[in-house]
Amino acid sequence: MPPPHRFPRWALIVPAALVLAALAWVVFAVPALVRYPTDLEVSPRYEGTFTLFVDPTSAAPLDEPVEVPLVVERHIEVDGDESSRDLAVVEETIRQEAGDLFETTQTNVYVMDRRSLENVADDRAYAFEPSNVVDRSPAYRLNLPFDLGEDDTNPIYKNEIAATYDMRPDPDGATEEVGGLTLHPFVAELDEAPIDAAYLEELGQVVPLPRELTFEQLEPHLAAAGIDVTELLAELGPVLAPEDLDTLVALTEETIPLDYVMSFEGRAGIELTTGAEVDVGASESVGARPRLAAEDELRAVLGRYPEVPAAAEAATALDEVLDGPPVRLFEYSYDQTAASVEDVADTVADLRQQVDLATTWVPAGLAALAVVVLGAGLVVHGRRRSHA
After folding, report:
1. Is 2 a member of any domain?
2. Do both 263 and 328 map to the same domain?
3. Same-domain pairing of 279 and 352
4. Among the listed residues 194, 202, 36, the one whose alpha carbon sits nearest the alpha carbon of residue 119
5. Which InterPro entries does this entry report, sorted A to Z (predicted)?
6. Which residues are CB-contacts of 101 (< 8 A; sequence separation ≥ 6)?
7. DSSP readout, 9-41?
C-alpha cells in the first residue's frame, strides 16, 4: 500500500496524458478536420431591380430609363471528385433574369485551399468561360477565412474586373440573428474600376456593348453633357481657320474607343467562426467613357476661339465628357431573400457545429476530464491522509 502522504500516481499521469492529448488534438487534429467541406451545396436567391439608361441598339441615351425586376439565382457546389484533401474545386452558376430584357447564365470555377480558404493558382479555375483561366490567389471569393475577426479586412476577388477589392467591417452596421447564428456586418465598395475584357464578352451576349462609337453615335451623349455640335459649328464657321476646320472634320470621321468601368457597393452578414457569407446584397453600375485620341488637338482648336461662346462652353463640357463621371449604361441592385438567408444559415449552422466540435468541445472536454481525474486524485489523497 502506498504511503498515505504520497499523491496517487494515476491522478498525475492520466491528467497529464489528457492535457497532452488536448494539445495534440489542437495542433494536429484541428487543422486536419477544420476544412472547407467537399460536399457543400447551397443555392442563394436574390431579388432587386435592373435599370437601363441607353438604347442597346444605337447606344443613345434613353429619354426615360427602363427599370425592370431582377431575379438572381446562384448555385454553389463543391465538386467532390475534383477536390482533394487540400483543395476544393467549387462551381458557381449564376442565373440572372431582368424582366423581359434578358435572361442569362454565368459559370465560374474556383479552386480554394480548404484550410485557409484562399484561392490558389490552378488551371481549373476560370471566370465565365473555361478558356478564361484566372489566378485569384491569394484572395478570397466564396468564403472568408475560418475564425474571422470582427475587425478584419480581407481582399475579395471580383471576376468582372479581374482584380480585388477590400471587404471590411461596417462601423455603422448592426449584428443580426438568423437561425441561431450571429451575423456581423461587412461592407465593400469600388469606384470606376476598369472592366475586364472577358466580362465585356460575357455582357455582349446579353446587351450589345460597342467597343467604339462613331461621332454620330457620340453626338447625343455630347448633347447631354452640354455640347451642341450643330450650334458649335454654326458659331465657329465664320471665324474658323481652314486648318482648324480640317481638324474638326477629321475628328468627326474617326471612331471613338470606349473605356468601360464598374462601380460597386456591397454588404454581407458574415458568421465569424466559419467565415461564411450568409446574407448578401449589392448595387452595381456599368458605365463608359470615350477615349478621344485627338483630345489635345480639339482642345487647341476650341482654345483659339475664346470670343465664340459655344467654343468656350464646349471646352468646359469636354472636361465633363472625358474626365467626369462615365456615361451610365445600366445599374442593378439586389438583396438576398429572407427565405434564402434562412436556408444558407441552416447550412452554415451545421458547418459551425462541426468547427466548434473540433476546435472547442473536444479539447475542452479532454481538459475538463483531466480536471475531474485530478480532482478525484485529490479526494483519494485526502482520504488516505485522514485514515493514516
Report:
1. no
2. yes
3. no
4. 36
5. PorA
6. 50, 52, 66, 68, 207
7. THHHHHHHHHHHHHHHIIIIIHHHHSS--SS-E
Residues 146 and 57 in one domain: yes
Model pTM score: 0.84
Q: Are residues 294 and 366 in the same domain?
A: no
Distance CA 281, CA 343 (A): 16
Q: Do residues 111 and 232 both lie within one domain?
A: yes
**Of 282, 274, 360, nearest in space to 42 by CA:** 274
- Amino acid code (one letter) for 56: P
367 CB-near residues (< 8 Å, 6+ apart): 18, 19, 22
What pLDDT, on the 0 to 100 scale, is given for residue 249?
84
Q: Which domain holds residue 26?
A: 7-36+340-388
Name the grid cell of 156: 475579395
Q: How far apart are CA 138 and CA 117, in angstroms?
A: 9
Share of the chain above pLDDT 90, in %: 55
Q: Specify whether 21 is located in the same domain as 53.
A: no
Integer Cα distance of 328 and 221 in angstroms: 10
Alpha carbon distances (Å) from 374 to 9, 26, 388: 10, 21, 21
* DSSP for residue 140: B
Q: How many domains does the chain have?
A: 2
Q: What is the CA radius of gyration of the chain?
A: 31
Mean pLDDT of the 332-356 span: 94
- Nearest by Cα to 359 from 17, 40, 15, 22: 22
For 359, the grid coordinates are 476546435
Kindly state whether residues 23 and 99 are assigned to the same domain: no
